[in-house]
């Protein structure tokens, strides 16, 4: 899958990978249409950070969760 191209599949894949790795329970998923247009690169950056680490502190999980929330359209 090409994660450099914004598509509903790539957004969904990155979001689900992040939530799975952080073992987060989510009420809903981010779809490409619900993502701010300028936020795709931010989601990709979060994805790269999360996938590169094996452990997370509680404060890191809080920060990542907060950033995920900021990426959604209001």
UniProtKB/TrEMBL annotation:
Tell me the organism: Paenibacillus eucommiae
InterPro entries per record: UPF0435
A Pfam family (short name) is: DUF1128
Name of this chain's protein: Uncharacterized protein YfkK (UPF0435 family)
